[in-house]
Amino acid sequence: MSSDWAHAPDVVVVGAGVAGLYAGWRLQRAGHQVLVVESARHVGGRAAGMDVPGSPGRPLDLGAMRFTSDHVLVRAMADHLAVPYRQLAATGHADTLFYLRGRRFRAGEIAGDPDRVPYDVGPDARGRTPDELFEDVIARVLDKAGAVVPGTRRDWNRVKEELELGGRPLFEYGFWNTVSDHLDLESYAYLRDGNGYDCNNWSAGEVMQTQLAGFGRAVRYFRFRDGTRSLVHALRRAVEAHGGQVWTGTEVRGVRLPGAGQRIELSLRETGGETREVTAPALVLAVPPRALDLMDLDVPAVDLPSWRQDVESVVSHRVLRVVLGFAEPWWEDVVGRGATRSLTDLPIRQVYYLDDHRVTGGDAVLSVACNDDRAYDFFTPAPAFAHWRRGGALDGPDPHQLARIGQDVIAQLRLLHGTAVPSPTWMVVRDWGHDPFGGGYHGWRPGRRGSHVAARMRRPWPRHDVFVCGSAYSDIPTWMEGALSNTERLVQDHFGLTSPDWLPPATYLGW
Ligand SMILES: Cc1cc2nc3c(=O)[nH]c(=O)nc-3n(C[C@H](O)[C@H](O)[C@H](O)COP(=O)(O)OP(=O)(O)OC[C@H]3O[C@@H](n4cnc5c(N)ncnc54)[C@H](O)[C@@H]3O)c2cc1C
């Protein structure tokens, strides 16, 4: 039930992903009457999960699934809201299985037997795993420019924006353009195939930071015990506990900016087709770039060119996730119990082995992340969301599509592991390329000065109280931490809030 004020709140937040719910909670607590409007029937956006098919209550993450020891805001907020999480066993880098150019080998074998690697690499790359080579190359590029590998997010941001290579700022380069002096072509192919991500169109410093701070050998990971959705649901409860409202199944279709002193007008459409209008003095758009494009936004004509340029400063990265459940963790016979992922130049590219069955029981879960463009092109068209379980009905738009994806994935798993793969007990496909997301995560385009764009995006038209937040325009756009810290900056800078008492003092909030 919506109360009367919900039709004329102080602030409307569009989008109930982690950023929108966080904005709603912080602003409502500070005394604003907040309405959060979400087009999906559920909250969470890219952090929402689902129940394992056929196992009600057992969580399955389809987007965000972990955070790192550097993610101060996620962790402090989870502690404050009493959302349980656990540290994952250290990544078994030596156990990582590779299947590249038709050859199978382990990371731990490479140093002792460099010829296992089927690439004719130069002396600098011989005996190095792709992860090690990545680290070497980044260190060499930075060293040539007189810098060392940064140890903190704040230092990374300095390097990304201030470091110069050949007289040009680092952020003007795409990543692979910066490494050509340091890699022969075979080493380049090895690094690119063995890395699992294709991110050539991201700016150089960002790829470096993502690789080392997100996937480096020193990184420690945490997962929410009850799925990432437990964080999202705790946030929703926090919004509502303080009197805020969250409307799901309600899409914001249009936004009309008023004259000075008037309220912003929003046109809403509910899942059933019913339309309604809401007005508010302030509007927070907590949605990714594709969703901004889809909305009929009444952007002031004078601001349109720079708005368009800013919105397009980040690339939407297409991601398809396929998650499979098996009665037994059959892969442990091949990769052992320590391995957390395998990498291949086959279209599946990356396989993550989750340890849920050891912690909570139930099926053994394996997640295939088709994260790069060549993988995505192989598997699409794919349904936005579909799932199947043995003995049950298929839930999704096109059974043939799902069956085809399932067969392709199993065939590639067989080749990657060199063993028979049993039939899965269930399978889920989530293609984040569909609207309103347009991609799973985002990366800054070469040539865009992120700190400037990020500040402009938080308040794109200074004459209007319209704000944008979320992970896409943060300094770490592939992480929930980016979504939260970017939103915390917004509420501090533009709504006058002070840092919450549960957040460690002087927590760095990025650009
Ligand atoms: C496969 C995958 C794996 C990931 N893994 C991790 C991970 O392990 N750890 C991590 O920290 N991050 C991870 N991420 C990134 C993380 O999920 C995102 O950075 C974060 O969830 C983004 O939150 P957000 O609130 O900014 O945006 P979103 O989650 O995109 O939320 C936007 C919300 O707005 C809604 N919306 C859009 N348009 C409208 C409209 N017109 N009207 C109303 N509502 C609208 C959408 O439905 C959505 O709910 C992953 C992402 C993907 C896709």
TrEMBL record:
Domain Amine oxidase residue range list: 18-485
Name used for this protein in its record: Amine oxidase domain-containing protein
InterPro entries: Amino_oxidase, FAD/NAD-bd_sf, Flavin_monoamine_oxidase
Domain of life according to the entry: Bacteria
Species for this entry: Actinophytocola xinjiangensis
Lineage: Bacteria, Bacillati, Actinomycetota, Actinomycetes, Pseudonocardiales
MF terms in GO: oxidoreductase activity
